[in-house]
Amino acid sequence: MGQKEISLPTRGKILETSLKLFSTKGFLGATTKEIARESGVAEITLFRHFPSKENLFEEVLNTYSFLPVLKGLLPEIAAMQYEKALTMIAKKFLDTLDSRKEMIQIMHSEAKRYPEKIHKIYHGFIEELIKTLASYFHELREKGVVRDFDAETAARAFLGMFFSFFNAREFDMFKKYKGSDADKIIPEFVSIFARGTLK
Amino acid sequence: MGQKEISLPTRGKILETSLKLFSTKGFLGATTKEIARESGVAEITLFRHFPSKENLFEEVLNTYSFLPVLKGLLPEIAAMQYEKALTMIAKKFLDTLDSRKEMIQIMHSEAKRYPEKIHKIYHGFIEELIKTLASYFHELREKGVVRDFDAETAARAFLGMFFSFFNAREFDMFKKYKGSDADKIIPEFVSIFARGTLK
DNA sequence: GTAATATGTTAGTAAGTACTAACATTCATA
DNA sequence: TATGAATGTTAGTACTTACTAACATATTAC
Fold first, then answer.
1. Measured distance CA(A179)–CA(A159) in Å, rounded
2. Do B119 and A174 make contact, defined as CB atoms within 8 angstroms?
3. Are B169 and B177 in contact (CB under 8 A)?
4. Would you say B190 and B83 are in contact if contact means Cβ atoms under 8 Å apart?
5. Which of B105, B115, B184 lies closest to A173 in CB terms?
6. In whole angstroms, what is the distance from residue B136 CA to residue A80 CA?
7. Which residues of chain B make contact with A128, given a CB cutoff of 8 A?
8. N or C: which end of chain B has fewer CB within 10 A?
9. Any alpha helices (H) in chain A, and if so which ranges?
10. For A1, how many CA atoms within 13 A lie in the half-sphere containing its CB?
């Protein structure tokens, strides 16, 4: 029984533990026994909530797959200065990646095992985000702020820089980047990109 | 016995098959039985060459872990025009990623299981490459070609754009990017980065 | 040709895994 | 207090996995 954190109902606890263990040990490496133990429930309780490990995995994907967070930001930044807007987008993007790092890890490791599902989630996130950002660039071009470039490709470039930075930071499990590194890197990335796209 | 491709000695065939299966199914998902079958050898032959599956996996990492390929390129591009040099670097980088995509997949999926080893390989590749590229930017700054920016951060930005593009392409298993997409994306990325860093 | 070496065949073991059956216990609510 | 729902306990099954033993066969070197 161990700790009995009242709050979460059983199903939620199992899903949470599963997210953590699937992301660190993979689908095969995380056993139902361990998931149950870490969730503080009996193994059979897990199977009463989820008919199979497969199903549990899919429910994890469904539960923690995420929707674009940038869309709501666009009106807010429309009036801002270019570099400031880019900085805000970058920060929001990195924050979102941080808050969903377990899902990203799962997507990386299980992409080949569940291609359709993972692919769908990936598109619902990154690709959607790219299109949103591209439409922002489009507006700026019509306003004459930025030069004439392919908006979607530029969005890919911008987000790609930060996504790789995020991955590198995740990879560097030992000599971790300090939190302050992002503060150094964001303005430099933004500066390069802004100068590279301004008129 | 099936196909008996004379060429490769047994050990090499097993390593090659292992690389492929570990990358598509993960360390746990790839069974020694399957590796042996796909290699065209008996399972016990595998264990005569490698004392354990663990050991086989480590030998795969050792065999296919790679060294920087950019270093030899630097003298060659030193005299070239900036954008042309960047284009060449990008192409070489993408080619290298392509030729090692199985290793990259393994690094992504097994990072948490073998942190020390994977981390070492990662550093031997990406981080080394970043430093090499940074030294190129340093030279250009002394020649007065580019403006004053943090060379290593810029290298991270440049390679990051392409690394994310590579990852996206790998992820997009279904509606695959056509080979021509790289031809559209490389110049646009290079153009943004070059304008962003020139004096 | 003979000896050594690499490989194959067959069979098997010990351990772990997802998942189930049967029955007991807790706990909220009426 | 009684009832029903959710959970726990114990035991077990069928299957897979990494890995081994013992012996047979092929291949190569001299």
1. 19
2. yes
3. yes
4. yes
5. B115
6. 35
7. none
8. N
9. 10-29, 32-39, 43-49, 53-64, 73-78, 82-99, 101-110, 115-122, 128-142, 151-171, 179-197
10. 2
How far: B33 CA to C10 C1' (Å)? 15
Place of tokens 């390929």: B69
The integer distance in angstroms from the CA atom of B32 to the C1' atom of C5 is 24
Is B169 within 7 A of strand D by CB distance?
no
CA B35 to C1' D18, in angstroms, rounded, equals 13
DSSP secondary structure code for residue A199 in this structure: -
CB contact under 8 A, B168 and A126: yes
Residue type for B5, please? Answer: E
